Amino acid sequence: MTELSDFSAARSATIRDAMATINASGMQMLLLVDDEGRFLRTVTDGDLRRLLLSGAEMGDTLEMLPPLSSVTAPDDTSRKAALALMDRHEINHLPLIDGEGRIVRVLNRRDIGTPILLSTPHMGEAELHFVEEAFRTNWIAPLGPNVDAFEREVADLVGVGHAAALSSGTAAIHLAVRMLGVKPGDKVFCSTLTFSASANPIVYEGGEPVFIDSEPGSWNMSPVALERAFDAAKAEGWIPRAVIVVNLYGQSADMDALVEICDRHDVPIIEDAAESLGARYKGKPSGIFGRMGIYSFNGNKIITTSGGGMLVSDDEDLITQARFLATQARDPAPHYQHSQIGFNYRMSNILAGVGRGQLQVLGDRVESRRGVFEAYRDGLGDIAGLEWMPEPDWSYSTRWLSTLTIDPAVAGVSVTQVIARLAEEMIEARPVWKPMHQQPVFAGCRHFAHGNEAVSDRIFETGLCMPSGSNMTPAEIERIIGVMRGLLKDR
Length: 491
Ligand SMILES: *Cc1c(COP(=O)(O)O)cnc(C)c1O
Description:
The chain has helices at residues 15-25, 45-53, 79-89, 109-112, 127-136, 145-158, 169-179, 200-204, 223-236, 255-264, 316-326, 349-360, 362-380, 408-411, 415-424, 455-462, 474-488; strands spanning 8-10, 29-33, 39-44, 73-74, 93-97, 103-108, 162-166, 187-191, 208-212, 242-246, 269-272, 280-281, 284-285, 292-296, 309-313, 386-388, 395-396, 402-406, 430-431, 447-448, 463-466. By secondary structure, it is of the alpha/beta class. The protein has an 8-stranded mixed beta sheet, sandwiched between helices. It has a 4-stranded antiparallel beta sheet with strand order 16-18-21-19. A 3-stranded mixed beta sheet has the order 1-2-3. The site of pyridoxal-5'-phosphate has 14 residues, from helix 7.
């Protein structure tokens, strides 16, 4: 880091000294200060050039500079406000000044202009190799050797018999829902605390989602609420066609308990592991506990193909059928013949190449994300009112997103305030998923709670997702912690 003294000068400095200072610091300007160290003005190369052109000598001092009111800001100025100021004045450096007029720091547009986002793609070294190979061999069309290999590699990694690479996780859920025979009017149980893509495919097929609450221990589907829903269904004389169990933020649901209940009622599970590739439940890979499981390779997930998904199952017939439906349901005939409505849901050979490269670094990405979570917990663990998303004994979470709840009565601030404060510093944080039973689009759907109140409602009101990318630097994490501490301390 460049020290302030490395690019400051007194009025007694010569033009030659000033040029040498600018040259050495790489800052393209220097800070003129008085004897008490108070800020006077900035001096650029151009200012010195103009002095020389107007007749000054290299040995003359900076006393010759005319006074100038340079743009400065108080030292508690947010990054967003600082950038706005720099934009307005078309400058790249902004001195921050304390109450005494001394320079605390100089913000450099290059350093502060980049936001920290929630979860960004993080490429490894091999992706380009697989993509180049696809180009070299002209396997650009959908399907091809990367697709076959990617399916095999994912299936082997999670220890499942078969996998179909698809255009998205949503497509995978849709095919699973369709293959389980969901018809108009059929009910499907689905975790309520999730992204809408878990539930939308039920509606694509004319089905009716019935939402199931979370349990506090894992934030995932509550076996108690699920049992209640089955009891109600039985009393009313219906049975759901399927149960969609979501593994939230990189953590498996309590699958043994959920599988036991569903087996007892003979209802198949679709495991939505879009967020939990690389996680483990009782030592086994997440995503393989249902009749079918799905993964997502969307741009914000732990590994990405920029967009894509995978359907996995031990049932080979289901995966064969999924591939058939995903390629327009073409009957095996010499001409184009269709006996069913199909979809265009397959992953391209190019994107599967990206996926193969990403799969090689999945373990590293999981470790990094867990490291991010640990860093937050270490840096903020002493602040009252914060509770970190729990990780039960049986869970090995990827911590896809680092999440916590903030009790406003104890912490003195709400999640909304935290998000707003972080945004001022160009740090992206978000609320946790808004439960599906609270969504306007699902207003007519039923919901079964874990207790007297919905656990998911409380998590939504107080939950916060922190930036969690595996490519964040320690300095970025430290900065985020600093902003959080500044807001939360002494309350
Ligand atoms: C991302 C996500 C999906 C959808 O996956 P896409 O690949 O984006 O279609 C489904 N369910 C959950 C829980 C997700 O987070």
